[in-house]
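The instructor's notes for this session suggest beginning with a concrete chain rather than abstract definitions. Hand out the sequence below and ask the class to guess, before any prediction is shown, which regions might be ordered.
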Amino acid sequence: MKREFLLAASTTVLALASPGLALAQTAQPVSPAAAAPTAPDSQPAAADIIVTGQRAALASAQNIKRLAPQVVDSIVAQDIGKFPDNAVSDSLQRITGVQVFRDSGETNRVVIRGLPNVVTTLNGREIFTGSGRGFAFQDLPAEAVSELNVYKTSSADLIEGGIAGLVNINLHKPFDFKGFSLGLTARGEYSEYAKKVNPIVGLLVSNRWDTDIGEIGVLVDVSYRKQYYNQPASFSDPRYEQNISGNNFLVSNAVGGFYTRGHRERPQANFALQWKPSPNVEIYVDGMYAHYKEQREIDYYFGVPGSASSVSNLQLYSPSQAGGCENIPASGTVAAHQSCELASGTFNNPYVATSTQAFRQSSHDAQIATGAKVTSGNLKLTTDVAYTDSAFNENIFIIDTSLPNQTFDLVSNTGGHINWNLRGNDKMNANLFQLQGLFQTGDSNYGNSIAWRTDATYDIDHGFLKKIAGGFRYVNRNAGATGETQISTPYSKNGAPLVSATSVFGQNFFETLPNQLGFAGISPAVTPDINYLFNNQAQIRSAYGLSTGDAAQDPSRFYRAVENSFAGYVQAGYGFDIGNIAFDGQAGVRVVQNNRTINAFATTVNPDNTTSIAPVTARSTDTDVLPNASVRAHLTNKLQARFSYAKTASRPDFGSLNPSLTLNPPTLNRLGFGSSGNPQLKEIKSDNIDATLEWYFNKSGSLTAAYFHRKIDGYIQTYGVQTTIGGVPYTISQPQSAGNGTLQGVEVGYQQFYDFLPGALSGLGLQMNYTYITGSTQAPLVFGGAAVNTPLGNVSKHNGNAVLMYEKYGVSARLAYNYRGKFIDSFNPGGLQLPAYNVIKAQSHLDLSVSYDVKKYLTLTVDATNLTKAKAYEYLGTPLLPQNVRLEDRTFSIGARMKF
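After discussion, reveal the predicted structure:
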């Protein structure tokens, strides 16, 4: 029996090639160290296959998964082109065990098997956004990608830092193509709620030449996308206790609706230059630049029930309804009592307002690298130097306006959301709205790094050992942030009467809110116009008695971090036979040392509840020894099993280590809140076990199953802690290191084209995968009392994809269904909040993509997303206490792909 002795880490793969371009895919799987310019195995060989259709793409992906010594899932450009995916984050959701979060018309917050601790590499090199350790996958267009690899198990040659796994993004290279290649994509995408057409274009040009100094290849790839979006939502703020007419109620702080509207632009460009002066030597330079710019407004329209002058028609949930009532223990002079959630009521003359929260954001991600690959007999050497730079900036400007003389009818939890109705003054009469508070701030953060990596592998021709490898990596990483003082200013001072907003700023100050929520009794209203706010900031500040310029920098929002990492590894590949069964695998160890310095300003709460701030420097050193081992058994020519063990570690984000405290005082319609980092955070450590059973019954057909178990120590989650500062109550969000925890689950995957069916039916195919995950961890001891197990955030128990495929007669179609079960989105303090976490309900999405090859060089496409107009529901611990319901957009697009 033939054995494949490969050193690459395992990945699960769905094949991809540039939309509309035939891409040569190697028949051998490779790790990021090999797929990227840091290893020599990425060049096409004579036995390479040409991926041109879904069957070939699936066969290539299946071959990678089958030959990899551990566990990997991938998707290649040909597959990406068959989905209605605009960004890398859209494509990742198709991969077994990967979950995403959807908000404001796009996918983001990628997690692997429920864990967000993901390392991202671009062409095998670490990449990040801003000061964080993660990467904003939505900033990179799908058109730029040649292959996505999701590494679910680790090996010594992989970059450390992700207990969840590693995502490697390979961009196109000129040596991927036979010669001159030109690809053009253009689409127009209609957004149903935004009622706008979004342009999406991309251009790739590549060529390679044989010259007197060797073979040279040059590639340039550019793309642009502009997206308009509008996401209507209803909301109910967290509850607090209020005594009304002698009864204790849990009343929502605010109830209403909001619209998240805006537009974002994402231009991107990448290039690659490859030079082979001889068959055994390659020198290269490549780079990528992605830019993001967005103007967004969140327009709130709400009422504050607890501020009403009188109430009537009050009705409580029955105490027998789980979550409807809570027994409040005695505290100080307050006797033990029961407080119940309000089911419905009428509130007379409460505080009713609109609020325009205006945001301008921009960021960039850039990377440039150079290196070389040398092969001499059985020895392969690679070296690579990369510079990565990223920055994020944000400006926030918020104004509230109130509408007096309203009657607020509240009906809780019907149809999965809070229902409400306003009766009173004309909500379209701009002259009736009165100026309330102004809030303004701005912040920025950045990150950059210089990384040098060198790897060597030596193939052994005989014996137990088949390959040995080793290498080192040095990284100098810088990160930091600054922020303006957050100023919250009421318009009315010293009891002066409120004034009409139009009397100060004129009629152009307002715009009309749409009416897309569809809730009974709600009519459109006016709200401050975002363009007026941004274009007249100096005038508005002056009217509020403030300096006309930007606010001063706030020391508590400043930090500077420097981190130096040194890593070295050794790894060996082996193989042997026992009877008729062949075994192979790898074993290695990676040793990493991190030296970190953070300069910031620490905020101290004094005994008199005042605060003081002083500079502080924190230094830390971590040394990790990360072993790994795997074995694969070739049970038959079509059936194989794997087992692997690895120890992994994830470092805290720099912002999470910042000791400063930022406070936002309470207002009439909002409770006081704040946030703080935690310099005491430790690395997250995890011991990982994975086992798979894989049956490959034909070239593009397989049935696979995997079991995974993670023993996690010190998992970091953000919790809300209630405290009083200066006599004012606040909820302070702070990351905490939890105790011991576990995450485990199973994955099942199936794919097949039914070529055996007659006629046109032979074009049918099916892909399905399902992931089951459970996890828990000990709550951090900062909360006091005995250690208790709590659920892990982001973990959905049930997850799956089902894709009905068709490819024949020039037609290619995919109907893709994606499901993610409910998960905890955030943790809150207990007590009157009832259950101490917010939950996002289960979500499902149905997308369609159809293309037709008009000519060999021309393909027309029709795509649709969210065909069923799925909604996102959020609740507080129990569905009895709904928080938000977001109406997610549906889009339709038509386009064309050309290749030459």
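Then share the key points. The two ends are 42 Å apart (CA to CA). Residues 711 and 742 are 5 Å apart (CA to CA).
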